[in-house]
């Protein structure tokens, strides 16, 4: 990674892209500290810390959600809109046809995603302002909002803050798209990466501030935490790069006076091919009921019962989360890898898997391999969901939530993808120089 960065900065064009990417990420972090006029800074902190899903979303925004700043919604609405469009593309034929129409179809799908992003941002902004301020009935008496700035008009405060938060979410989306277009790597992923890293940095910094001559225990806790974090990251990278290679042999074909084929290739099948999406969906679904009940004051008793029965750490929570992770892992595996299509492509190009007949037997063989790999991938994601917090608890309790389980996978995946993007950029520039 360090060698890749050195080679990247040695090239003028790539260096400009990296600096532009860093500049746009700095703009994102500045927006995470801009307060919204009229809204108290600590409005969302209690609600966010008491809800696992909101805590995850706040970690992705770098703490902006907990502080109620301009970028409180972060990139969340755009991610949700992208997931919705991706799922609808599978089920709606019109969207499926658009996805296969090349660049023009992708532009139309992007515009649809942006429209859905605006709708989701408005809904989430209204939920933040109204529900977390005490509901419609108690909102006027809430001390978290400066009503005098809005002429004591409740509707004006709601409209103003909804517009501000929606505009912030769209600005984050715009920054992500500009990084993807003019910078290096996927802008949306890098924004999430920076948010998680900054949240972790803030937590560690708060821990270090408590160090003094009479109390050096926090220093050893931070060192032990960082050592264990490096070990966990190493294990995740090892599994993330692991893949099953299926060798495909292509028969020789004579066309005119030329001979084609006779070569072999591989089909790489990654153990964690679905990435972090099964974990995100599983956490979102299992946290959704508590999130809804936490914003409705009349459901406080139901929320207490839910936390006792389905709260984080209970055996029912562990069981349900494990089932959801397995379900979404196999669901995403079916979307990303279609054995029938792969088998058909291999057969059309005169290829075959050694010892397996072309056609239906090949599809069955690929499906069996895919199911086995997905099973191991689901077990791996389940272990990642529980083991890191258990390991970190041996060092310190305060830093357990510095890296959420989903956050760890996101950080590793984005770092590896960024390294691949830089290597491809360097290779492209070297080829251009060679051709000149």
UniProtKB/TrEMBL annotation:
The keyword Metal-binding does not apply. The chain crosses the membrane at residues 64-91, 112-133, 153-175, 182-200, 220-242, 279-299, 314-333, 373-394, 400-418. Pfam families: SecY (PF00344). Its main location: membrane. One of its GO terms (cellular component) is plasma membrane. InterPro entries: SecY, SecY/SEC61-alpha, SecY_CS, SecY_dom_sf. GO terms for biological process: intracellular protein transmembrane transport; protein targeting; protein transport by the Sec complex. It is found in: Cell membrane; Membrane. It is a multi-pass membrane protein. Keywords: Cell membrane, Membrane, Protein transport, Translocation, Transmembrane, Transmembrane helix, Transport. It comes from the Bacteria. Belongs to the SecY/SEC61-alpha family. The central subunit of the protein translocation channel SecYEG. Consists of two halves formed by TMs 1-5 and 6-10. These two domains form a lateral gate at the front which open onto the bilayer between TMs 2 and 7, and are clamped together by SecE at the back. The channel is closed by both a pore ring composed of hydrophobic SecY resides and a short helix (helix 2A) on the extracellular side of the membrane which forms a plug. The plug probably moves laterally to allow the channel to open. The ring and the pore may move independently. Component of the Sec protein translocase complex. Heterotrimer consisting of SecY, SecE and SecG subunits. The heterotrimers can form oligomers, although 1 heterotrimer is thought to be able to translocate proteins. Interacts with the ribosome. Interacts with SecDF, and other proteins may be involved. Interacts with SecA. This is Protein translocase subunit SecY. It comes from Candidatus Gallimonas gallistercoris. The gene is secY.
């Amino acid at each position: 990674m360090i060698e890749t960065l050195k080679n990247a900065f040695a090239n003028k064009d790539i260096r400009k892209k990296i600096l532009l990417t860093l500049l746009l990420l700095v703009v994102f972090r500045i927006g995470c500290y801009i307060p919204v006029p009229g809204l108290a800074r600590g409005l969302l902190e209690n609600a966010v810390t008491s809800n696992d899903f909101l805590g995850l979303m706040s970690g992705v925004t770098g703490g902006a959600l907990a502080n109620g700043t301009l970028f409180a919604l972060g990139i969340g609405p755009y991610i949700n809109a992208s997931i919705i469009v991706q799922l609808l593309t599978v089920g709606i034929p019109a969207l499926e046809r658009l996805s296969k129409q090349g660049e023009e179809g992708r532009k139309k799908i992007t515009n649809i995603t942006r429209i859905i992003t605006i709708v989701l941002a408005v809904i989430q902004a209204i939920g933040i302002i109204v529900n977390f301020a005490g509901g419609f009935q108690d909102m006027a008496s809430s001390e978290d909002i400066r009503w005098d700035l809005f002429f004591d008009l409740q509707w004006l405060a709601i409209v103003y803050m909804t517009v501000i938060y929606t505009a912030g979410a769209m600005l984050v989306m715009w920054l992500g798209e500009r990084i993807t277009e003019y910078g290096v790597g996927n802008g949306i992923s890098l924004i999430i990466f920076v948010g998680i890293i900054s949240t972790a940095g803030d937590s560690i910094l708060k821990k270090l501030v408590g160090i003094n001559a009479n109390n050096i225990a926090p220093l050893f806790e931070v060192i032990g935490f960082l050592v264990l974090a490096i070990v966990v990251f190493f294990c995740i990278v090892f599994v993330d790069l692991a893949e099953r290679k299926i060798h495909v042999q292509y028969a020789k074909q004579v066309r005119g006076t030329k001979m084609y084929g006779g070569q072999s290739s591989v089909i790489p099948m990654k153990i964690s091919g679905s990435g972090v999406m099964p974990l995100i969906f599983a956490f979102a679904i299992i946290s959704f009921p508590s999130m809804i009940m936490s914003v409705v004051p009349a459901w406080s008793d139901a929320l207490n019962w839910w936390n006792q029965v389905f709260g984080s750490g209970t055996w029912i929570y562990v069981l349900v989360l494990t089932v959801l992770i397995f379900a979404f892992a196999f669901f995403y595996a079916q979307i990303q890898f279609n054995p029938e299509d792969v088998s058909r492509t291999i057969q059309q190009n005169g290829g075959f898997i050694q010892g397996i007949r072309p056609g239906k037997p090949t599809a069955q063989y690929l499906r069996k391999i895919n199911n086995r790999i997905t099973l191991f991938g689901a077990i791996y994601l389940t272990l990642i969901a529980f083991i890191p917090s258990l390991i970190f608890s041996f060092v310190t309790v305060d830093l357990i939530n510095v890296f959420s389980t989903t956050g760890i996978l996101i950080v590793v995946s984005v770092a590896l993808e960024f390294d691949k993007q830089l290597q491809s950029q360097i290779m492209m520039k070297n080829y251009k120089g060679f051709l000149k």
